[in-house]
Specification:
40 strands, disordered N terminus, eight-stranded parallel β-barrel, alpha/beta
Amino acid sequence: MKNILVSGWTAAALLCGVMVSCTPVAVGDLNVIPQPLHVVQDREAQPFVITPSTKIVCAADNAKLVRTAQFLSSYVKEVTGLEPEVVARADVRAIRLAVDSTLANREAYRLRIDADGVELSGGSESGVFYGVQTLFKSLPVTLDTGERPALPAGEVSDSPRFAYRGFMLDVGRHFFSVDYVKQVIDMLALHNINHFHWHLTEDQGWRIEILKYPRLTEVGSVRPRSMTSWKPEYDNVECRGYYTQEQAREIVDYAAERFITVIPEIDLPGHMMAALASYPELGCTGGPYEVPCEWGVFKEVLCGGNDKALQFARDVLEEVMDIFPSEYIHIGGDECPKERWKACPKCQAKIRRLGLKATPDHSREEQLQRYFMSEVAHTIAARGRKMLGWDEMLHGGLPENSTVMAWTRPDAAVSVARLRHNCILAPYQYFYFSNPHFNKIKGLKSLQRVYEFEPVSEQLTPEEQSHIIGAQACLWTEWTADSLKVEWQILPRMSSLAEVQWSTPENRDFDSYVERLPALLEIYNRRGYDFRKDIYDVMIQPEADTVGGVLRVGLSTFGKADIRYTLDGSQPDGGSLRYTAPIAIDRATDLKAVAVRDGRRSEVSEERFARHLASFRPLSLTHAPHKDYRAQLGRTLTDGCFGTSNYRDGRWVGCRGTDLQAVVDLGEKTRFSKVWVSTLINTNDDIFPAAGLVVETSDDGLRFTEVARKPLPAPASVTVELRREEVTFPTVSARYVRITAQVMNDIPDLKTVKPEKAFVFADEVGVE
């Protein structure tokens, strides 16, 4: 990014230069979110001051351009109270919008601003629209200040990195009104997102009117209650609702005005319980079926050997394509158990007729799904459209010309690209904003996790990288029944996503992003969006100084907030210690901190630091941890901090299929008689207790002698639990201690699908 800031348009110029009035001027900033590619700002030059006489000029015969100009006028009014008139011509002091077809990218734009006016040109009307978003976010908020708004003198040259920039909303689990869907689309527009993936059908609800199959909405759109916990518990509140075809077209038109394409998803052949409840003859058993009130994956799916089921899919998609003009039609293809197909006479007869044979990579039933999806793809292709589906389609082999949305893991995109299919990254580990584990990550860390994900793998060749066409976040609504929680989950993480989608890797910097964030948060506040307020909190970042034997704790937040903290467990206030440099901790401590902005305090951030013989000492791991759970290569195991039940909080070291073995250097020969390991059990996610603990000691770090071994029991049921496992022994004296948490190889059969390998997790090892 080229970003030149020349500071200090002088007070004299502000008060007595270009101004007729002596009212103070507030000058905005062209560095917005997402960060434009090239920005030049000249703070010495006179800015463009917006006045009641300012006009917005565009060609009157270009309806799209006129609409964008009207958007800009409304945006200016939103933050300044002024509402520039849209006109076909003006002599001076105007904001001029135009299309410049010489720009190579249709979504590119250029801005030139000086005291006399603003020139905005885009590679197409969409490029102008994105330039308008930058102008909007560059404006100072003067509605309540009495200041006059101004745009800084400068130039912007910008274009997006990815052509596909998406966001998905699931309305199958919970229904949201037409008006609220429009509000979500407005959020997308603010963040330069150009595809709205609308997940319209699910096991728990069919939400789009299909004229040929009226029972889909008569029966399939109604659920008597909803699951509220895995215990299970229910709310006993009826969930109903669907969109008529007319309403769906209204949404399509609303989005198109904002240069957003609506991509419908009809998820098949799995996730079809609502359809089967409506038309039971489409299933392998013939039912009866009910719209389920529970979440999860169900074995009841469309019958892969029933020609009526295939015709049903074709008929539905024909009507869907009549409503949605999008290039892509999403057909799911995920989470389709084959249990019914294996026992179904029709499915097995179809497999024999097609001559499908099991291969080392794909079962016969997986190949039957590939056949089913290929037939669906032909229907889509016949209308000049493209099929889009989830990466489980890889299991049976991809139909020709498929575009894949990789959600199960980032590496799935590598497999897709190497097959020369286009791929959109939507990994749940980073971009599922409804993931309850990730939602437990607070403050700036929740943004950083999204921001620092790179969609294009270095494992790919340049030609293969060209098949990575975009990135998308998803909001699933099993546990989200209202708009407040929708917004809490997506904002401000959508702004982190936007910069990943729009800005080049060289142009992305998290610290810079955080400095630009407050201006966008002000827009959220003005619009009444219920975004996460914990981003105002202090982020506590411990790092063990293994040489000095202390813990150095950094405190950070964004902007120019004053950070105050205490070390005795008391509540911090304006009179507490002011943070100026990393805090050295060498004993058990309860640290609490707040950020103070304009006299208002954030919520209290708290961390308790334990102290034992291994605290803040050097540690090495014998076996490499799983790539997703490295926790600073094990350094968190002696930092005195404990993780939460959210094993993705950055504190947990996880090994899969191998023992978690750590060697701690105590610095000198030390007497001790107890070793413990703080562990996590989450059998839902294949994280099992350690099978046993083994303790070994050494004086040279090379030759170890076992001093204790303790077997541990396997769980008897599905459980999520934080547990401290310890082993005691007669006092020994040694400098090095090797602690092994043994992975469970004899995995109990607790779930429908028994994992081949178990995880073992730890967040702290202790020596006493």
